[in-house]
Amino acid sequence: MTAVARAHLSACPACDAVPAAQALADHAQTEQEARIALSVPGVHCAACIATVERALEAYPNVTSARVNLTLKRASVEAGAEITASDLVSVLAAVGYEAHELDAGTLSATQNDKAGRDLLMRLAVAGFASMNVMLLSVSVWSGAEAATRDLFHWISAAIALPTILFSGKPFFVHAWSALKHRRLNMDVPIVLAIVLAVVTSLWETSLSGEHAYFDAALTLVFFLLGGRYLDHRTRAVARSAAEELAALEVPRAFRVVNGREESVAVRDLQVGDVILVRPGGRMPVDGEILEGQSELDRSLLTGETLPVFAEPGQTVSAGEVNLTGPLMIRASAVGEQTSLHRMADLVAVAESGRSNYTSLADKAAKLYAPGVHILSALSFVGWYLYTFDVRTALNIAAAVLIITCPCALGLAVPAVTTAASGRLFRKGMLVKHSTALERMAQVDTVVFDKTGTLTAGTPKLINLDAFDSETLSIALALSRVSAHPLSVALTQAAQMAGVEPAAVQKLQEVPGYGTQGLYNGDLVRLGRASWVGASNEGSTAAYLSIAGKVSEGFVFEDSLRAGAEEAVTALREGGKDIVLISGDSSDAVRALAEKLGIANWEAEALPEDKAKRIQALSEKGRYVLMVGDGLNDTAALAAAHVSISPASALDAARVASDIVLLGGDLSPIPMAIETAQSATGRIRENFRIATIYNIVAVPLAVAGLATPLIAALAMSLSSITVSLNALRLR
Amino acid sequence: MQVLSYLIPVSLLLGGVGLAAFLYTVRSNQYDDPEGNAHRILSGQYDDKPKS
After folding, report:
1. Which residues from B are below 8 Å from A119, CB to CB?
2. What digits encode the pLDDT tens for the residues A456-504?
3. Which CATH number fits the domain that encloses residue A476?
4. Domain stop point among A639, A670, A701
5. Does the distance separating the beta carbons of B31 and A123 come in below 8 Å?
6. Are residues A257 and A315 in the same domain?
7. CA–CA separation, A272 vs A265, rounded Å?
8. Contact assignment for B35 to A69 by CB distance below 8 Å
9. Any residues with CB less than 8 A from the CB of A166 and at least 6 apart, and which?
10. For position A323, what pLDDT does the model report?
11. How many domains does chain A have?
12. What are the pLDDT digits (tens) for A616-643?
């Protein structure tokens, strides 16, 4: 019922006139129904759409589900009791990876006011330019005297309001550039449009032969086309990036007078007591008051081994609590937390990168003054030659129109749109507008270990070393715990077909392990010190039966999908590969040897990582950094270009230029190739545009350019440039 | 040449109708998911009515 009401509301254009009523209706609706948005990077075909929609709609209390294939996103109308994580597991069951998106930011980007505005102006410009072109064709094919004047006046009547409406974005940009005493691409554009319209009006009023209304309109049309492409690419990237940023739901449990309440993290204050459940992330910096557990610090430091936690110990925001509930007294909140202090480091590192000038800006810097000087010179030259302002002005306008950067305005956006679209289909989101150009220069790739090259989930590697009785006891003990090592052990044992032994009085001792009684004997599975074993330094759990300790269960972080392929392909592509991690030397060496990376560094602090990258850059290297942790954030910002997986902390994703939407690393080498061919195309496009100018400009300066030649040159160069961009696919 | 006084307004009107139709499609979200629509048309599921 409500879904029908919504469809009716948004389909009726008149309703836009009563936004208040609509807001009211929307509001009433949100109370009954929740709209959940999911990012589903894996959908790519008609069958995928049907599978995903059917799976979601089959779930109880889901009213409707719709997949948007362009944005690779599913939006679901469901009862308020349905949470996004339910739906994520529904999709996982049918084989699609999904992430929750924030519905608030989604509704803001969905309507995409700016994009619609541009499209509207583009449509009006297209309509007007075609009509004026029609009139111009009859003038070119021989309309004379009164007819020609009539056609010129009608053209003027169509062109003037259209240029005011459609050209507004250019006028605004050019004005803001001039206000800051700079020149951008829009200044020559606006000058050309204005000069063309003014001289044409003057000519028309004197019953002159040449009017450039059609040229001015086509110019606006083509340039708006480029602007729209550019906007669309960036809007898709921006909205997806914003929505990913909302992945971490910022809520915490505050304990007041023995009762816990759910509050937003930004409302927490220093001194508040907060309960962090197993599996939860620390919202603030603080000190442990009660409870024992283990902490996973891998996102902050890169350590894979969980750290023991007990009262009196300090914790930092971002650490994950693993086994037991912890009570924390907040010592720093919000901006003061160690997590946010990292931002300062990022700001320092980032200042190095802002030096990059995009190809378009470089071209504009050469181009804009050149055009103005050329046009001014031809005005002065012709004025001195004929002493006729009208002729001189006409020629100056023709020069400006012919050189106007129609093709230049399309050259970059057409290519970036094609390249970003291609990368998006492979599961990569290009966030930054110059990321592709910088990516093309890369010669060194720096990887982080934990969570980037490895999946961050441990895997048991010595299952064969144990007899079946030991395994069945271990399985009985590990089954009851949610600790990552226990989960890995359970998985491995069940895969091997081990049946759990009959262990009684199972009990998890947070921070240490699990224990129980087997045939009247105490059995324990857990930390070396608790069980009574000697730790060998590797990630391991130990089992003791009646005080007798078995060999350690050794775990290893499993490789992320595609990591090996990515490293191999990059090496074959002639890139230097470096591994920098905050983890212990042993773990890093093992991984480096496995992947054949000769150049590695362990136990690196966040500052070390950033410094190492800066050192590489100073040596003239162009570094691509791939990382996910908070300890990588500064390094990501310092690198020439950076990539982070979608599973990364939002701070890391914000600092990086490209986000990998899927869990697979293998698209990285392909992305570099695409970036290189895209940059090649951009340069080619600039060359094509220059050739057109070299041919047409002498004609214009010599006073031989007619509106027909201007129209031909403009359309031809724009079309060639767009077609050249499409060859990228 | 008298005919021009009919033909020019007529052509402008026809073009205007096209423009209005385009603006309507923009306003009714028909460009939100071009790729998805291209795939949906291949499935028999939406033959009777489009997906809301």
Report:
1. 26, 31
2. 777 887 877 788 788 888 888 888 777 778 888 888 888 888 888 888 7
3. 3.40.1110.10
4. A670
5. no
6. yes
7. 11
8. yes
9. A121, A122, A124, A125, A128, A220, A221, A224
10. 78
11. 4
12. 888 888 889 888 877 787 788 888 888 8
Q: Which residue in the set B19, B28, B29 is minimally distant from A127, CB to CB?
A: B19
Distance from CA of A712 to the nearest CA of B (A): 23
Instruction: Give the global pTM.
Output: 0.70
Claim to verify: residue A53 and residue A94 sit in the same structural domain:
yes
Question: Within a domain: residue A695?
Answer: no
Domain that holds residue A468: 464-551
Sequence-ordered alpha helix ranges (H) in A82-210: 84-93, 103-111, 113-140, 145-166, 168-179, 186-205
Q: Are residues A595 and A479 in the same domain?
A: no
Residue A212 covered by a domain: no
Q: Judge if A581 and A655 occupy the same domain.
A: yes
Q: In what order do the strands lie in the sheet with A73-79?
A: A62-68, A73-79, A33-39, A99-101
Kindly write down the DSSP assignment for every residue of A563-626, as one continuous string. HHHHHHHHHHTT-EEEEE-SS-HHHHHHHHHHHT--EEE-S--HHHHHHHHHHHHHTT--EEEE
Which stretches of chain A sit within 8 Å of chain B by CB? 3-4, 7, 10-11, 13, 16, 45-46, 49-50, 53, 64, 66-71, 110, 116, 119-120, 123-124, 127, 130-131, 134, 147, 150, 154, 158
Nearest-Cα distance to chain A for B19, in Å, is 7
Verify that A451 and A563 share a domain, yes or no.
yes
A254-264 confidence digits (pLDDT tens):
888 777 777 77
Q: How far is B48 from chain A (nearest CA, A)?
A: 16
Partners of B18 on chain A (C-beta within 8 Å) are 127
The answer to whether residues A545 and A634 belong to one domain is no
Nearest residue on chain B to A120, judged by CA atoms?
B23
* Domain identity same for A625 and A544: no
- The answer to whether position A468 is within a domain reads yes
Residue A505 CB burial class (10 angstroms; 0-12, 13-18, ≥19) = exposed
Among A149, A448, A557, A628, the active-site one is: A448
CB contact under 8 A, B33 and A71: yes
CATH number of the domain within which A591 lies:
3.40.50.1000
Which residues have a Cβ under 8 Å from the Cβ of A19 and sit 6 or more positions away?
Answer: none
With beta carbons less than 8 A apart as the criterion, state whether A667 and A340 touch: no
Q: Which DSSP helix (H) or strand (E) runs through A37?
A: strand A33-39
Enumerate residues 6+ apart whose C-beta is below 8 A from A472.
A493, A498, A499, A500, A501
d(CA A308, CA A325): 13
* Residue of chain A whose Cα is closest to the Cα of B7: A135
Let me know whether A443 and A495 are in one domain: no
Chains A and B form CB pairs within 8 A to the count of 65
Question: Catalytic residue at A608?
Answer: no
Tell me the percentage of chain A whose pLDDT exceeds 90: 3
Amino acid at A1: M
Beta bridge partners of A78: A34, A62
